[in-house]
Design goal:
By secondary structure, the protein is of the alpha+beta class. It contains 4 helices and 15 strands. Strand 3 and strand 4 form a beta hairpin. The chain is globular.
Length: 278
């Protein structure tokens, strides 16, 4: 006996069931959440065919009748009027650098980077793309001295922005860890958004320069990010011979680890710590 298949997925959007946006902790957010129906794609924030694969996967589910509901009403609520993501704006002005930075943790990987250091711009673009961060940086630094102040101060601003955008960290995954290849290079990056700064760097570059870029500045950048985001960050180079690949591997792997750590865990009901705060 054959079964009649429905032409519409159980959670499909109907005319009287508009695609909701999600509000988290009183702030409206983009509606990235898994709907609980395997293989189903739906409109998210007005984007037809988008998959529920963002940091709020698990927020939206559906019952056996196809009615959508929020799996985490303590954190999320529907909001059909406006959307807002976890964002931060940093404006840091010193005698050495003038930096304006905008960060959206719940972005799509869009970036607009201008630091005056070409290789560094390339690394930051990779960070945004693989971390699904929307990132804008405008930096005017004293490059007539060297690149150090520019790179380190951008790291300070990015760390401050991560800390600000995370807020009280309620519902986040907290931990993220990846080991990824970049051709002959293999990098491990491990992140804990613990509220405590700790940085471990076990990387040796085979050359002092990557083009005109000082390879030591990779360490200085990530140490500044870790200190100001108040997070644990461990970076380990397992093997690799090309300095460009090693740097690129560090940025890509850390982007993926950070993307995991900032994502919302639909089962986490509060701050992921026995202390009750991070």
């Amino acid at each position: 006996m054959s079964k009649t298949k429905s032409s519409q997925p159980p959670c499909a959007k109907s005319s009287d069931d508009p695609v909701p946006r999600i509000r988290r902790e009183g702030r409206p957010l983009d509606s990235h959440g898994h709907n609980g129906c395997s293989g189903y794609s739906a409109q998210i924030a007005g984007e037809p065919g988008a998959n529920f694969l963002g940091p709020y996967r698990g927020a939206i589910r559906c019952d056996t009748n196809g009615k959508r509901f929020l799996s985490r009403p303590d954190i999320f609520s529907f909001d059909d009027e406006s959307t807002m993501s976890r964002t931060a704006n940093i404006d840091r002005q010193t005698a050495e650098t003038q930096i304006k930075l905008t960060l959206n943790l719940d972005g799509t990987g869009q970036s607009k980077i201008q630091t005056g250091v070409g290789f560094f711009d390339h690394m930051l673009t990779l960070l945004a793309r693989h971390g699904l961060l929307d990132l804008e940086i405008d930096c005017n630094g004293d490059l007539e001295v060297d690149q150090h102040h520019t790179v380190e101060d951008v790291g300070i601003c990015l760390g401050l922005a991560i800390a600000e955008a995370l807020g009280d960290k309620k519902g986040i995954t907290r931990y993220g860890g990846k080991t990824l290849p970049m051709e002959e290079t293999l990098i491990t990056s491990a992140v804990d958004l613990s509220g405590r700064a700790w940085f471990v760097y076990k990387v040796d570059f085979p050359t002092e320069k990557i083009g005109e870029f000082d390879s030591q500045l990779v360490e200085d950048f990530w140490q500044a990010v870790s200190a100001n985001a108040k997070m644990n960050l461990h970076l380990v180079l397992h093997h690799g011979r090309n300095s460009h690949h090693i740097s690129e591997g560090i940025f890509k792997t850390t982007a993926r680890a950070l993307r995991e750590a900032v994502s919302i865990d639909p089962r986490e009901t509060s701050v992921p710590s026995t202390k009750g705060t991070l």
